[in-house]
Design brief:
single chain, 252 residues, alpha+beta, 6-stranded mixed β-sheet, DNA-binding
Length: 252
DNA sequence: ATGGCTTCATAGTGAAGA
């Protein structure tokens, strides 16, 4: 089963790119973040006509997550049950015997901001909830925009980024904590090119200069097998791209 | 260098992203 994640930075703007990517790559499951679309306006038919089911949790302007699936979707969970949140950042469902958790983890702005505190609180709730969720669903995949670059090799300029949001020690500690729950970074299970990133700044020709970060991840539990994982840079080269590009993994 | 781009929003000295 091919599973994937993509922060599309507005589904309305990127719908055609997503449809094309689905047709060309045929994933079984695609998790989307930053749909920026209210549920009433979600383009459900467009995906259904392509043979996909969709579940989504969105809002106007910001955030918003969705799971697009070729297979039956059951037991949908909207938002973290242990964290009151007006921001639509999590949706989970069971698909083909696997618990699929789609997250848009808060950005955090800067380490001295209230948004950073919110990010760490959100992450603590996610970690606590996942520990419990893994008891109920040993076969689990956590896909999304984590807004965390777990290691220096995931950062184009680790010296410039040192200590900043997205790479700070408390954020990386949570990423390690998730790994201690038995979750493995699918991408790092395989030999990968150096300087591999999933996001590049729109400004200053970030993509062309490969000034990026690897902040979109697929973590899989111990009972999930994985045969391949990669970052597909092709959509980032398109006209009017998202600043993130899809990450996928082949699992069973 | 708090800029630089992009989106959604409103008509802001904009907000937020990463």
């Amino acid at each position: 089963m091919r599973i994937a994640t993509w922060n599309v930075n507005s589904l309305k703007v990127r719908l055609e790119q997503v449809q094309k990517w689905l047709a060309e790559n045929q994933p079984d499951i695609l998790c989307l973040q930053e749909t920026k679309t209210e549920d009433a306006n979600f383009p459900m038919l467009e995906f259904q006509q392509a043979g996909y089911q969709v579940v989504f949790s969105g809002q106007k302007t910001y955030n918003g997550v969705a799971i697009i699936s070729k297979h039956a979707v059951t037991d949908v969970q909207y938002g973290l049950p242990n964290f009151e949140d007006l921001q639509k950042r999590m949706i989970a469902a069971t698909i083909d015997g696997m618990r699929i958790v789609c997250v848009y983890i808060p950005n955090g702005e800067s380490i001295d901001s209230d948004k950073y505190k919110y990010k760490l609180a959100w992450l603590a709730a996610l970690q606590a909830w996942l520990k419990d969720e893994l008891q109920h669903y040993p076969k689990l995949a956590l896909l999304g925009d984590y807004n965390i670059a777990p290691e220096d090799r995931d950062v184009h300029d680790p010296v410039a980024w040192a200590g900043k949001v997205l790479v700070s020690e408390p954020e990386r500690a949570v990423f390690s904590g998730l790994q201690q729950l038995g979750l493995r970074d699918a991408y790092r299970l395989f030999e990968q090119p150096e300087k591999s990133y999933s996001w590049w700044d729109y400004r200053m020709m970030g993509f062309r200069r490969n000034h990026g970060l690897r902040i979109d991840h697929i973590l899989i539990s111990e009972t999930v097998s994985c045969t391949a994982s990669s970052i597909d840079k092709a959509p980032r080269k398109l006209e009017r791209p998202s600043d993130h590009t899809p990450v996928w993994a082949e699992v069973f």
